[in-house]
Amino acid sequence: MVRPSSARSAVPGVGRLGLLEPTAAASLRELAWDNIDTVPVLWALSRAPDADLALSTMLRLRERLGTEWAALDSAIRADTSLRGRLFALVGSSSAFADHLVADPSSWHVLERKNLPDRDELLADLLDVVDAAPEPAPPGPDGREPEALLYRAREFGPDIAERLRRRYRDQLMLLAALDLAATVENEPVLPYQVVGNHLTDLADAALTAALAVAVARVCKDGPCRVRLAVVAMGKCGARELNYVSDVDVVFVAEPADPTATRLAAETMSIGGQAFFDVDAALRPEGKAGALVRTLESHVAYYKRWARTWEFQALLKNRPMTGDLELGRSYRDALMPMVWTASERPDFVADVQAMRRRVEDLVPEDLRERELKLGHGSLRDVEFAVQLLQLVHGRVDESLHVQGTVEALTALAAGGYIGRDDAANLAASYEFLRLLEHRLQLQRLKRTHTLPAADDDESMRWLARAAHVRPDGRQDAVGVLSSEIRRNAVRVRRLHAKLFYRPLLASVAKLDSDALRLSPDAAIRQLAALGYVAPQNALGHLRALTGGVSRKGRIQALLLPTLLEWLGDTPNPDAGLLAYRRVSEGLDDQIWFLRELRDEGAIAQRLMIVLGSSEYLPDLLINAPDTIRMYADGPTGPLLLSPKAEDVTRGILTAAARYDDPKRAVAAARSLRRHELARVASADLLHMLEVPEVCRALSSVWVAVLEAALAAVIRSDEVETGAPAPADFAVIGMGRLGGHELGYGSDADVLFVCDPRPGEDETKAVKWSISVAERVQRLLGAPSTDPPLHVDAGLRPEGRNGALVRTLAAYAAYYEQWAQPWEVQALLRAHQVAGDQELGVRFLHVIDKVRYPEGGVSAEAVREIRRIKARVDSERLPRGANPATHTKLGRGGLADIEWTVQLMQLRHAHRIHALHNTSTLQSLDVIEATGLLGAEDVALLRESWLTATKARNALVLVRGKATDQLPGPGRLLSAVAKVAGWPNDDGSEFLDNYMRITRRAKAVVERVFGA
After folding, report:
1. How many CB atoms are closer than 10 A to CB 168?
2. Strand ranges inside 312-395, DSSP E
3. In terms of residue numbers, what domain contains 186?
4. Which residues are in the Glutamate-ammonia ligase adenylyltransferase repeated domain (predicted)?
């Protein structure tokens, strides 16, 4: 906005001045600011972030000052600098506007053109309480301590209010000088100057509060206590906000009741007069003692402290009180800080803390959160602190507290690039500037940007933050662009900060690229979660080696890929798997191009590779699945195939070959692709448990059908005669219920029926040959997950005939069926072969599994006896019955046996219980009132939880297993794959045991009734 060229210029209208209030013109007349002589004043007023607020505040001041208004009016007209500070302040902050109106004489504070130094701040606040030095007691060596306590001589009931006004005056002066550039051409205060001054002011404030505490607690004589107040967090790092909690820790010698009362009184006075004083970072947090001796602090950190507590100690700084004792505290604890990165749980703890911080922000606010959102202040601070902890053990130049100072030191030490450090510092300072302006508005602690459609608030923020139009966009547009640009830059540099120097150490990048030494690279990889950092470095060399275009593309991709891998349960295995996949697809031009151009593909691939040992081999052998990690027009491509299309594809591919081996190989190939798709979608939490089970079951059925058809077709070609019998495969167990998991075998019965005119003996012999060939073909050794066809549930078990005729089955079940065999038939369902024969078989067994009048009491007793035997004998030796997903307490067997017993009892009268699915049968049991909704919900939740955990075990370990591991890295991986909201495996295990324990109570009540 341009000033008028001379005093003869016309007075601008209120609209041109940015005044929107209808009474603005009248207000200007009342202030006598509507004439040519006041044009400079009006133009200054127009540059205030909120000109209407500034004008209304000046009216209120005029009313409060009365006859003294003339002095302020004269100063405003004459002093350009004062005018800039005043209008910028009251146009930015309604809180400071109210402060000025409440104490109108305080406008004289704004006449000062520079900031007071630390000593002046301390003297000003101590003057309020008329404090006098009081030496602390001598130290253990008899030497007088360097620091002094102060004792207040003014500490009446109004002392907090008087301190608050003086503190607010000093804060107001800083804010006015900080904001002045928005109105007049005043110098912009650097971010670090503002942070340091706020910290000096906080130090002086708590010194005054401690002086009042000394006067109140030690009324009868000198305080024989050495008390140090140690600043933590932003105050410790000398980068306070205008409105912040001040985090402190108290150290005392001795830590007696007097010391505790001093600390508590200091916090109370500080909270009433200045800001919240928070001592929650002390040992044991709010549950711990408020004051401890130095020896007690040291003992706690040696034995009990967690990683995040050492991370917090990075910023500790003696603040006030006995500074010598405070320095002793820092000297004693900092060596432990610099060895924290060697702790076995260091990486997991740091990552868990970062995720917990992110989870505090509601999803809908993450893009507006300056402190905790994506590309936020905390991203910068966490990254810098982690690098300090990693390399500070061997480099004392990194032993600094402030974020910007640490970035400078990291660049100087060669741990991050100088340009990256400068760019990250610039983004950090920009975000902190916005945070300061938002807090100044009402002097409230906030870190949330206005909503994107709140033009008025965004316009105010742009002006308060010195953002001007650029010729293409107005100030709001420029501010929005800058916010987006800086958030993206922080996110991009967050990855580059850790990984670009690593890759430059192993790859031939730019000649001037920063290269870490081998030792530094290994330290950094270890801190990023790699258990075997030397191996990881070897993988990086292999991926980026040579001068080929692929190596250069890998070097460009890897910083982001490695960051995503670092958030997975097993980055070591993930990096090895990525190397194997890359080498396996070396001749596939599309692979690296897809990773480069499709961010969703790259990120999902890293999550999969770093979480699962089941998937890498499948992806190497079915690489087109990786392309399905992209998002299509209607959602992830992983979800696009329909089960019937998959089945049709497998059967069609196998039917092209007369040779059964080639036909089964074709079916296996498509099965491999489908397993990779389903497992990927499951691991990425795109599918629910029932959907996973149905998909796995349908692909098993399709492969079984394809193998059976190929064998029969081959036999007919070889013999030149049609098959002598119809042949059907009956699914049993989870296959029959369409509830297979990744590690499930296919339980089946084989049934045949001689065709008219065929000899039964010959037909049965042919059928056995077919069944054996199918089992042999599907069970042949392979790198794929196994295809084991188990016919152990046939009559007489493994001692019985592999295949029987339909009539033989009918005769056996009518005369010899045992209760356990009847129970097993509840899940029998036609899955492959002759459909009509399979249905006839089901009609035959319906009379057995759904007997008229229900199951006999004797059979129920036998089923209970068998269940008790299974519980006591079949659980593997050493297995934990509380966490065995199949046979453990409240596990799959418990739920399924309970459901099946209810089917045996009630299916003769409730036709809907003629159902092979456990979940669907539970729905019927609830709908018909056989069990209450709460009991059914417990059984359903336990079955789903156990199935999800069992599937997650296979995905993580790459092999079938039913036993959940104990606390540790493996359990955390299973928890994450199972969809637990954080990576705390112990919480997942506790939840699993709580659910299954409650379900077991229902099982015992229903199964035993």
Report:
1. 22
2. 317-321
3. 24-344
4. 119-327, 603-843
